């Protein structure tokens, strides 16, 4: 009765707007929580803290928002310890290395993005298997089992993203800004583009239905010659300053919206010939120092309260859930071009084996900077 999503395109996003999922208000006390959650709350009281690292978001302030929402929801008095951390792939490897060496995890959550990271994490079994259905009872069980959680329960989807072409709107007027990847090959953009040193998002280009095989390689070969710099996903101030008029692709388009709200001269376009919805995943490392607190944090992120704070901090949320602001953005693109968004679900990404392609892309990007 809750089949209100599709595994393929997001053309059925409108079905979600009908409000078929009803998410309850926050519980008022421990007695209102299901047994699995109530047990974790008691364990978390003994931990008293939660350790998180993230690469962006001016997360010091974000950690305060998360801490306040988490404590209010569960009736706890936890301290959130935030430290800036390495990019996603490096952090994933570090967690696996610590576990193999019998060392405690440097943070209490796994944070995964992209097919290579996803497959590495699930092969290394760094995160513990969890019964997410019992931990997020406000969501339909079949949605959790079939769409959001990994088959072994080690990871769960918590946010949707659609990588974008970001640009400085003082340098490039919106009417002239590229709206497709193919437009980026125009000689007029040569020397104006920054990308990432880890080829964020491009690893899935070869598996995209519009860019398979030789098309993907031909594009990367041409695009790499257009790049003038490699910067981290979080360095969006370098676009706002005009150092690089274009950045392709953003990892966190919500941060661009947040910069716009502060008056920065930036804008972005979802590439019409890419228009992909990607996801990030959370898990709890087997060697986490505060596993109960980490599990509760992830479960809370999936509530209306958690999604609200996520939006305030990331400018993004999970498009499957009612009230999602991301979903409105995706629907607008679908209406504009008359074509569906392409959804990279967790299960689809588990079938992708594109690490060799990513290494090739990295080689192309780095060679262009020599």
Structure description:
This protein is α/β, with parallel strands linked by helices and 370 residues long. It is 39% helix and 14% strand. The chain has 15 helices and 11 strands. Helix 2 packs across helix 11 (291-301). It is globular and about 60 Å long.
Supply the key terms.
370 residues; alpha/beta; five-stranded mixed sheet; four-stranded mixed sheet; 39% helix; globular
Quickly describe the structure.
The protein is an alpha/beta fold and 370 residues long.
Element layout with pairings:
Elements (H helix, E strand, L loop, with lengths): L12 H4 L18 H13 L1 E6 L4 H16 L4 E6 L3 H13 L9 E4 L1 H10 L7 H4 L5 H8 L7 E6 L3 E4 L24 E3 L18 H11 L2 E4 L6 H4 L5 E3 L4 H9 L4 E4 L6 E8 L7 H11 L2 H11 L10 H13 L4 E2 L2 H4 L5 H13 L3
Parallel strand pairs: 1-2, 6-7, 6-8, 10-11
Antiparallel strand pairs: 3-10, 4-10, 5-8, 5-9
Helix pairs in contact: 2-11, 3-12, 4-5, 8-15
């Amino acid at each position: 009765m809750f089949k209100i999503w599709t595994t393929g395109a997001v053309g059925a996003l409108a079905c979600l707007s009908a409000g078929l999922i009803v998410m309850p208000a926050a519980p008022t006390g421990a007695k209102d929580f299901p047994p699995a959650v109530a047990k974790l709350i008691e364990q978390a009281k003994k931990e008293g803290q939660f350790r998180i690292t993230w690469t962006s978001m001016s997360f010091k302030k974000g950690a305060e928002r998360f801490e306040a929402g988490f404590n209010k929801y569960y009736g706890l008095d936890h301290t959130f310890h935030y430290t800036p951390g390495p990019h996603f792939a490096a952090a994933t490897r570090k967690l696996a290395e610590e576990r193999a060496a019998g060392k405690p995890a440097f943070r209490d959550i796994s944070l995964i993005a992209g097919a290579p990271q996803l497959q590495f994490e699930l092969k290394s079994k760094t995160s513990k298997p969890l019964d997410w259905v019992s931990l997020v009872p406000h969501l339909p069980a079949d949605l959790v089992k079939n769409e959001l959680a990994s088959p072994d329960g080690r990871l769960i989807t918590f946010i949707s993203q659609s990588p974008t072409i970001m640009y400085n709107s003082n340098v490039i007027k919106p009417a002239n800004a590229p709206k497709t990847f193919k437009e980026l090959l125009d000689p007029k953009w040569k020397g104006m583009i920054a990308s990432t040193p880890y080829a964020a998002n491009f690893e899935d280009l070869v598996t995209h239905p519009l860019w398979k095989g030789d098309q993907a390689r031909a594009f990367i070969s041409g695009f790499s010659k257009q790049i003038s710099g490699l910067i981290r996903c979080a360095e969006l101030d370098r676009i706002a300053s005009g150092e690089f008029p274009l950045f392709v692709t953003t990892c966190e388009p919500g941060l661009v919206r947040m910069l716009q709200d502060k008056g920065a001269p930036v804008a972005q376009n979802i590439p019409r010939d890419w228009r992909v919805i990607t996801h990030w995943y959370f898990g709890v490392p087997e060697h986490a120092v505060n596993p109960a607190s980490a599990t509760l944090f992830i479960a809370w992120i999936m509530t209306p309260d958690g999604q609200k704070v996520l939006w305030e901090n990331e400018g993004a949320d999970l498009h499957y859930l009612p009230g999602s602001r991301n979903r409105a953005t995706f629907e607008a693109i679908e209406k504009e071009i008359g074509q569906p968004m392409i959804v990279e679900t967790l299960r689809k990404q588990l079938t992708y084996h594109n690490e060799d392609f990513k290494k090739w892309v990295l080689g192309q990007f780095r060679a262009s900077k020599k």
